[in-house]
Design a protein that fits this description.
This protein is an all-alpha fold. It is about 70% helix and about 0% strand. It has 7 helices and no strands.
Length: about 160
């Protein structure tokens, strides 16, 4: 990847997939950490892009990287020790829409959460969800189904 010509395909990839990756990260990592995860995702992707083996599956490849960055973010947050007085900073912006729903998605078990986020935030097909999660298409369907069922049950409890 030398010169502007070498960067153009990757720049196009960022333009085409960047917004979907960001929505996916908001759903998994939350609105306060999504931007950092997005940046880390595309830095990692840029580094690995020259060795990409299956260019037609770039969408699933990107979302796999994004998922790992969201996990890393959660692990880092768990290690962070609160300070006596946190630094002053503005409150994070809420997700663009359906913020309450995505907060419920974040409470799902990991496989269900990831599958639902891939399917609906990233608009991946079940095949691509399976590829991104390293499972079969059928396992992806099942994880989405179980996640949606749990969300419906949780929604009924919230409405009662």
């Amino acid at each position: 990847m030398r010169g502007a010509a070498g960067r153009e395909p990757f720049a196009r990839l960022v333009r085409e997939h960047g917004p979907g990756v960001h929505r996916f990260l908001v759903s998994l990592a939350g609105p306060d950490r999504a931007d950092d995860c997005w940046q880390e995702t595309f830095l990692s992707a840029l580094e690995a892009y020259p060795t990409l083996r299956n260019p037609e599956r770039v969408h699933a490849w990107l979302f796999s990287i994004a998922h790992r960055k969201a996990i890393d973010s959660h692990r880092k947050a768990a290690r962070d020790v609160p300070v006596a007085e946190p630094p002053e900073r503005p409150a994070p912006e809420p997700p663009p829409r359906n913020g309450e729903l995505w907060s419920l998605v974040r409470e799902l078990p990991p496989k269900q959460r990831e599958a639902v986020a891939h399917r609906f935030a990233a608009d991946l097909s079940y095949r691509d969800v399976g590829d991104a999660m390293g499972t079969s298409e059928e396992a992806a369907r099942r994880n989405v189904h179980e996640g949606l069922r749990a969300l419906r049950q949780r929604g009924e409890v919230l409405r009662a």
